[in-house]
Amino acid sequence: MKKRTLRVTIKDIAAASGLSIASISRFLNGLPVRADTAARIEAALAHLDYSPNAAALYMKGRATGIVGLILPEISHPFFSLIAEGAIEEARKNDQLLLLSSTEGSRENERIAVDQFARSMLDGLVYIPVSNPADLPALESFKDLPLVVAGRVGVFPGVPHVYSDGDKGGYLAAKYLIGLGRRNIGFFGSFWEAPCTTSELPEALLTPNSGSYSTIHRFKGYLRALREEGIPYDPARVVICGYGYTNGAEAARELLGRAVPVDGLLAMTSIVAGGGMEVFRGQGRSVPEDISIIVFDDSEIMNMAVPRLTSVQLHLRRMGVEAVRSLNRLIAGEEVGDTMLDVSLKLGGSTRSRT
Amino acid sequence: MKKRTLRVTIKDIAAASGLSIASISRFLNGLPVRADTAARIEAALAHLDYSPNAAALYMKGRATGIVGLILPEISHPFFSLIAEGAIEEARKNDQLLLLSSTEGSRENERIAVDQFARSMLDGLVYIPVSNPADLPALESFKDLPLVVAGRVGVFPGVPHVYSDGDKGGYLAAKYLIGLGRRNIGFFGSFWEAPCTTSELPEALLTPNSGSYSTIHRFKGYLRALREEGIPYDPARVVICGYGYTNGAEAARELLGRAVPVDGLLAMTSIVAGGGMEVFRGQGRSVPEDISIIVFDDSEIMNMAVPRLTSVQLHLRRMGVEAVRSLNRLIAGEEVGDTMLDVSLKLGGSTRSRT
DNA sequence: CCATGAACTGTAAACGTTTACAGAAGCTTC
DNA sequence: GAAGCTTCTGTAAACGTTTACAGTTCATGG
Hints:
CATH topology of the largest domain in chain A: Rossmann fold
Strand order of the largest sheet of chain A: 2-1-3-4-5-11
Number of domains of chain A: 3
Oligomer: homodimer
Number of strands of chain A: 12
Structural class of chain A: alpha/beta
Distance between the termini of chain A: 72 Å
CATH architecture of the largest domain in chain A: 3-Layer(aba) Sandwich
C-alpha cells in the first residue's frame, strides 16, 4: 500500500562510524562510551539526521510518548479547553495527544476505546459522553492506564479529575437568592436527553448518573434552596442538550409551564444564549426579569449581551491535571481523584431584584 | 519505567491452537487456510481476545492508521471545527488523529513537526500559525505525506485545502455596499499581529503572506470596492489577533481614527463580538450604524446580539477534505489543491442604510 | 499404489531497537 | 612483563508481526 520512505536507522550510523549497533544505542541512551567512540558516532550523526523509530522503541517496552484523549465533541468550548490544557501538559512532557471526538455517540465512543486499546498508547484520558447508560466496560480499556476527566465516580479505582459541581451549583443558586431571586430555574444538560422532562431527581437514583456534572450542580442547587428555605419545584427544571437550539427549546418549555422564574442556572454559555434569545423574544429581559448564571470558562461568555455571570471551571487546568494524573499513573504511582475548585465570575447577566 | 501489561499475541494463539504463528497471521489477514485450521484458530480466538500490536505492524511497513493534525489553537472554534471534520473522516477510515495545538507559537509548531516526524504517522495535516514569517522548512517533515489546510500556497507541490477567501471577502463587501454602505472597515487577523497598523497592502507583497485567509479576503474586499468605484482607505483597516479583546482593541483603534465607518468585515465572530461591545459603548448601534459580516461557521455567531451575518466557511468540511486528500496522497495518488466554496448567511448584524 | 501437483503449513529471516552476555582492550600493580 | 581488574565493545536474542521459502499433506490421475 504505502511505500514508506527509508529513514536513517541505528544501522546506518553503525555502518558510517564502523561501530556496532549496540554501541550506537548505548551512546544514544547516554551509557558510557570511550571518548573516541563518541567522537566517531557524533561525526556520523552530524550528516545523517537520525531519529529513532518509535515503533521499535515501543516493541522494546518503552513508552511511546503518546497519550489518548476521548471526548464527546471537540468543537464545544467545554471540551476544547480541556483538550488544550491536556495538549499543553503533554507537550511539556514531550508527549503527543491522540484525540477522538465521539460526537456524543456511545457507539463512536466504543469504537474509539477499541482503536485506542490496540494503539501504542502510554495511557488514556477519557471524558465519557454524559449519558448515564451503557458505559463501556472497564475491561475494554485493556489495562491501559486510565484517567477520567470531567466526571465523577465513573469507574471504581480509576482516578477522576473534575470540578466541584456541587459547590458550583450551590454558589450560583446562593448568589441568585442573595440578589432577591427565589424562583430559580435549572437547565440540566445531557447528551441525548429529552428536552421536555423534569426528571432530574429520579435520575439521581439511576446507576452511574452521579457521574455527570449536571447532577452535582443540581445537588448544589438543591442544597442552596434548602438552606434558604425555598421549596424545590420540578417545574423549573428542564433537561436539554448542549447546543444553542437546545437552550432555546428549554426556554420555550420553561416559559410554557407558566411557573414564575426570575433566575436561571444553565450548564453552558451556548445553552444560555439560546435561552436568552427566547426570553428576549417573549419580553423577558436579562438580567432584570431573569438573572442567569452559567458554568463556563471560555471567551464565549463575553459574546452574550449582557456578559454572562459564570461559575468558572478552570477547564484548561482540568486538562493539565488529567494528563498529570495519567503520567503519575503511568509512572506507577498511586493516584487519587482530583477535585478542582470553582469560583463565581460576575458578568452583566445577574442583578438585584428591584 | 512502565511495566506494560502483557497482552495476547499471535504466539499465544499459536500455542493455544497448536499451530504456527505464520498460520495465525495468514488466517488473520484473510489468506487461505484449511477449514479445520480456521476452526482451531477461531476456537482459540474465542476466549483469548487478541488485538494486533500496532507497533509490530508498523515495523513491517504497514500503515499505522494514525494521521497527525497540527493547528494553532484547538479552543478556537475555527480550528476545532476543522478538527472535528478531520476526526470524523479519520474515524470513517478506521484511523486515529494525533493532535497538536501550538497556541499560536512557531516554536511550539516546530516542536510538533519534530515530534510528528519521528512518530509513526501515516501522514500529516498542517494548519500553520498565520504569521507569514519563519515557516518550518519542508524538509523538516521528513517525507511524511503532507496536506496543508486553511492556507494557500504554503509549500509548493503540497496539496492545500482552503476556502475561497477572495470570494468571501468579495461577497461580504459587495453585500454591504448593496445595503448602501460605502465606508467599510476591515479587521484582518494574524497571530502575533500588531493591533495598531493598517499595513495590509504592504503585507500582500511579503513572501508567504499570501498564504493566509486574511489576505485573500482582503483582496476580495478590495475587488468589490474597486468594482463599485469606492476608493480604498487604509485608515479603515486594522490588523489584530483572533481574540475578543483583540476585536475590542481594533474597534477602539478604528473609532479613534475618526474616519467614517458604516460597515465592517471581521475575520471571526469573537473578534466581531469584542468590536461590537466597543461600538455599543460608544453609541454606535449594530446593524444600523455599523453593519457587520464575519467569517465563521460556528454556533457562536448566534450568541451575538444581533446574530451575525456570516460568510460560511464549511470548516467541518475542510477537515474532512483535508484528511481525504491526505489519504489519497498516502495511497500514492496525485492530489491537487481543493478550494471550498463559501456562501453568505444572513443574520441580524446587517441592514440597509436608512 | 505411486507419481504429480495443488494447497496448505512450518521455519526462519526481517523490521529497528535494547540489553544480557561474552570477549577485547586498556590500565594497574607487582 | 605478566596477572588481574576495569572499562568498554561486539554478538546475539528478543519484542510481535509478515512473508519468502521449503516442507508437508492430500487429492487426483495414471
